[in-house]
Amino acid sequence: MYLLYNILLLLLALPILAGHLLHGLLRGRRRHGVRERFGFYAEERLAPLADKKTVWVHAVSVGETQAAASLVKALKSRFPDWAVVLTNVTETGHKVATGIAGVDLCLYFPYDFPWTVRRAFAQLKPALVVVVETEIWPNFMRTARRSGVPAVLVNGRISDRSFPRYRALKIFLKPVLRQFSRLCMQSALDAQRIEAMGAPPERIEITRNLKFDMQTGGLNDQNPAPIRRKYGIPADSKVLVAGSTHAGEEELVIDVYRRLVDSGLDLCLILVPRHPERCRVVGELLSSQNLSYTLRSEIEDAPVPLAPGAVLLVDTVGELLQFYAVADLVFVGGSLVPVGGHNILEAALVKKPVIFGPHMHNFKEISRLLVKAGGGMAIAEGDEFYRVAANLLADPERCRAMGAQGYALLQDNRGATELTLQAIERIMEAG
Predict the structure, then answer these.
(1) Which pLDDT tens digit goes with each residue over 116-134?
(2) Catalytic one among 36, 43, 44, 64?
(3) Residue 370 is part of a domain; what is its CATH number?
(4) N or C end of the chain, less CB within 10 A?
(5) Residue 64 annotated among the catalytic residues of the structure
């Protein structure tokens, strides 16, 4: 299996590198971390790891990185003398990682070539590997095992969409899954699925969902007035935040926003594309609809307040919770187009009502629980989006109640961090 896999990687090596560089050119900026993706780290970058045991935490992108934040904090509290390395695949994930307290070094994850991974292990010298959700890389896992480094899968999740593919590849996945010392899954269903994929049942345990353990740093109780001033949001305007939107959704959001403003509502829109590099295209779309907008990156310390019917277009990373904190209503994207949705619990974390579309297969259980708790509402398309948004924005008491119910759901489901940490400690105690 490994021979076939590595032959395929060799055949793909040049296309991967070419695609990597072309992707950066198309985004209009240089790509960073190319050397790191091939396992080359500058000596000065590794200085924080000197004379310390190292935990290597890998989280592919933004959602996984945010989920790992509470675990990183707990690891640093329990093992204060250890260093934490956090790696990501995506640039947006990497930017979020740099803002997480307790992380000693943020790097890009190496490509899964055998020599690349071996080089990375030789330089980082991890004593423990923690993989968030379902980042299963054969050579990475094999190198960890051969290096005598225990590896733990945390917050494990197998989606409805990916499970049939994984099960069909069981003959290839089984030897990889056996490299994990422990597989900490979000639910009983996830545990059943990864066992069906070939994971040893005695190494599987259910530790719940780390996303319920997210922290706000007090944002949920903070006076929103200073945040409004920071972003130039008028004190008396209502705020609709559309977070983590994708192509095909911005058009719907803009249409709903125009209709709400045309109905006489004093409303501002904060539009946060999932990928900031798309802001140029989204800006052109706003201009074509005769909507004025301000880029977040252009706001200074004393911004000019947004005009009625204007848009704050967010081309930065790491501030989404602050935008949610000043919202009257939150729409979470990736859900009106078949992406699979994004983390709706972030809005509940700051006690805001949240609406989302029908495509939530990546957050199927969370969306079901939030709707059942009364903290969120599912919409099917643009007209329903408008009707629901208009009704909620006209009913502040209902919005506050939904926010409180969503927040209560979070409190009732906390505890995944401690359960996961206990599983990791058992592995470390066993040597």
Answers:
(1) 999 999 999 999 999 999 8
(2) 64
(3) 3.40.50.2000
(4) C
(5) yes
